[in-house]
Design goal:
CATH topology of the largest domain: Methylamine Dehydrogenase, Chain H
Strand content: over 45%
Shape: globular
Distance between the termini: 47 Å
Radius of gyration: 23 Å
Strand order of the largest sheet: 1-2-3-4
Helix content: under 10%
Mean pLDDT: 89
CATH superfamily of the largest domain: YVTN repeat-like/Quinoprotein amine dehydrogenase
CATH class of the largest domain: Mainly Beta
Number of domains: 2
Length: 441
């Protein structure tokens, strides 16, 4: 079986962020498709926004803010289309309306990703770098600036500029965390939209010394001072970005012996990435291995804890989405480079998320609640436990001395000054030490 040429190629998808029962799907030349998934086993196509509505450019990726979808436009596989973006009003998902679209006039190259924050959209325009657009007027997109990071990082001889592409991204408080394909990972300060400044860069030396072929940094999620990055057939890296001028690697999920593994024969090709903060799980679309779940409750030692699908089963994933207890996997057709896949579409999976946090009522008789915590945590001690000291550390080993008060067998700790993330509480009783984990939201 092979995919017929008229089949819309599903690239990626997202669940409606306003919790309406709709799935928005980027289907390349098939445009934007919207499905009613109120009954999950039988999705119903309720609307299509064809590519003719935005200069016949393929829909490669999408994101949502409020009632608006932002589409990344332009075929980036063959790189025979221009880079662009469109805005679609989905106030009524069954009646979507294109409010405007914008196209980079001079260069081919396509697009990989689009993110919006406030009045600005950030377009990962592949070979054309990062493009910032003013979207304050949804009916009149305005070009602001274009930033092309230095091709000469990482420091290798004769870098292949065709493999250096802005294709994965997170944006937080005007800081762009950019996956630049063979150009590594970049942090770009866009506070001044007219003059973005690169403040950090990283590429794992093990992947280009002495091989001279840096691996593809494909996509990223940010959790406070940590970046989780999908690195093609080199698995997933965990980077410490607390000091953007000195980014370091904290952990590396690398089960296939990269960089000694082979791109064609590797059983995993990580592309898109999602993060369940409460559970401490990262979900990776892994090409011919469908999906792998990584436990990052200890980010320094990421480890696979679950999976879906099978290796070399002639279907391959590209995108992964996450919403409440639902996982969305998109599959693409490809002719054996780097894997074979003869089906395109979306699979919807369900899973059991962590509803009560990391720690529940454990046998040691010490409980922490609420998890995730907001302003304070309460430590409930068993009646015969008398602690002599306690400390709180984060995943980087930093220790925090926080105010607390005791009453009976309970200790209330003020955690309001902590950043969001995972923490370890160590309680000492004489020579005995007990460690508990909790999440600060």
């Amino acid at each position: 079986m092979t995919c017929p040429p008229y089949t819309p190629m599903v690239m990626t998808m997202i669940h409606d962020q306003n919790n309406l029962p709709y799935l928005y799907v980027a289907t390349k030349a098939g445009g934007l498709k919207i499905y009613d998934i109120n009954v999950i086993p039988t999705p119903v196509l309720v609307a299509t926004v064809p590519v003719s509505m935005y200069d016949s450019l393929d829909v490669m990726s999408l994101s949502q803010t409020g009632n608006y979808l932002y589409l990344a436009l332009g075929n980036s596989f063959a790189a025979d289309q221009k880079s662009g973006m469109a805005i679609v009003d989905v106030t009524s998902p069954t009646s979507p309306m294109v409010t405007d679209f914008w196209v980079l006039p001079s260069s081919l190259g396509g697009s990989g990703i689009i993110k919006a924050e406030g009045n600005y959209a950030y377009l990962g325009a592949m070979i054309n770098g990062l493009i910032i657009l003013d979207i304050s007027n949804k009916s009149n997109i305005q070009f602001v600036s274009q930033f092309i990071p230095d091709f000469n990082y990482p420091p290798i001889a004769s870098p292949d500029t065709t493999k250096i592409n802005a294709r994965g991204m997170e944006v937080k408080n005007s800081i762009v965390y950019l996956c630049y394909d063979a150009g590594g990972f970049r942090i770009i300060n866009c506070t001044n939209k007219l003059a973005p400044v690169e403040t950090g860069q990283y590429c794992n030396p093990a992947t280009y010394i002495p091989f001279n072929r840096p691996r593809a940094y494909n996509n990223v999620v940010i959790d406070d001072t940590l970046a989780y990055i999908a690195v093609d057939y080199c698995g997933m890296e965990v980077l410490n970005i607390s000091d953007t001028s000195n980014i370091t690697i904290l952990g590396w999920w690398n089960p296939y012996n990269c960089p000694n593994s082979n791109w064609f024969s590797s059983p995993s090709h990580t592309n898109e990435i999602q993060f369940d903060k409460t559970c401490g799980h990262v979900f990776l679309s892994t090409g011919k291995s469908d999906m792998i779940v990584i436990d990052v409750s200890n980010p320094a030692q990421p480890d696979s804890c679950n999976f879906y699908g099978g290796v070399s089963n002639n279907i391959g994933t590209w995108g992964v989405g996450l919403w409440q207890n639902q996982i969305y996997l998109s599959y693409i057709c490809t002719l054996g480079i780097p894997f074979s896949s003869n089906w395109t579409g979306v699979k919807i999976l369900t899973y059991t998320p962590c509803s009560t946090g990391i720690d529940e009522h454990d046998t040691d008789g010490i409980n922490i609640f609420p998890i995730p915590a907001s302003d304070k945590i309460t430590i409930e001690l068993k009646s015969d436990f008398i602690f002599s000291d306690f400390s709180i550390t984060n995943t980087l080993g930093q220790t925090f001395h926080l105010s607390f008060k005791t009453s009976a067998n309970k200790v209330e700790v003020n955690v309001s000054e902590l950043n969001s993330g995972f923490y370890f509480l160590k309680l000492s009783e004489g020579g005995k030490e007990i460690t508990k984990k909790f999440v600060k939201e």
